[in-house]
Amino acid sequence: MATKKESVPDPARSLGLLWRTGDRNARSGLSVDAVVTAAMAIADSEGLEAVSMRRVAERLKVGTMSIYTHVPGKADLTELMVDSALGELYEDMDEPARAPGGWRGALMFVARSNWQLYQRHPWLLELTGARPVLGPHTSRKYEAELRPLDGLGLSDVEMDSVLTLVLTHVEATARALAAVTRTRQESGMTDSQWWFAIAPLLEKLIDGRQFPVASRVGASAGQAFDAASDPVHSMAFGLEVILDGVGALISGRSRG
């Protein structure tokens, strides 16, 4: 089967692809959108590592070279996948601001929406990087998530920092949940089964008198979560604490 060497990343070309400048459907009906949709379906069912230009071509029942005509390489394809997935978040750019509960309710809506997106597309956690994907859906997401913070007395940098704090918390706990899920699948054991298996040896190795605080807290957390940790609880608890801090910041600005 014909293959093509991956092209060198080109930021200008990538932006053109993301914003669909000059995209034309082929006679076969093939388009950038069709390629991206097929790639996302593969990633959702088999993981990001299963996505290749050849696999996408097979799914679309076209030759591999036809895929390269629309998307030059996998680096471009993964950026397109990220931007497309982010387009699922909101109906319009005012949806978060319409959530009940003012700015706090809006940020909770933003957090839940991003959390649910990671559950639908866990491969997104493998594609978060230092540089954003500057596509249309990414831009709309940023606008939508900032609007509830506008007019609260925060500076522009503070607005960006508050949003970043919420989103990085969601990403971190979603990543932890993905790791827990993967460990359960690979080990073939639930957390309860794992704890039951190691508990007798652990009690012999660890002297609770030497680690009194850790023993007490660890036992309480283990009993509450039936596991070493609970990323779902961590997400909800941490979000409330973060929003309490944001509330204090906003109150301080209004008093000043």
UniProtKB/TrEMBL annotation:
Claim: Thylakoid is one of the keywords in the record: no
UniProt superkingdom: Bacteria
Presence of keyword Manganese: no
DNA-binding region residue numbers: 52-71
InterPro entries: Homeodomain-like_sf, HTH-type_TetR-like_transc_reg, HTH_TetR, Repressor_TetR_C, Tet_transcr_reg_TetR-rel_C_sf
Pfam families (UniProt xref): TetR_C_1, TetR_N
A GO term, aspect molecular function: DNA-binding transcription factor activity
GO biological process, one term: negative regulation of DNA-templated transcription
Record keywords: DNA-binding, Transcription, Transcription regulation
Domain HTH tetR-type: 29-89
Database matches in PROSITE patterns: HTH_TETR_2 (PS50977)
Protein name according to UniProt: Transcriptional regulator, AcrR family
Protein species of origin: uncultured Nocardioidaceae bacterium
Taxonomic lineage: Bacteria, Bacillati, Actinomycetota, Actinomycetes, Propionibacteriales
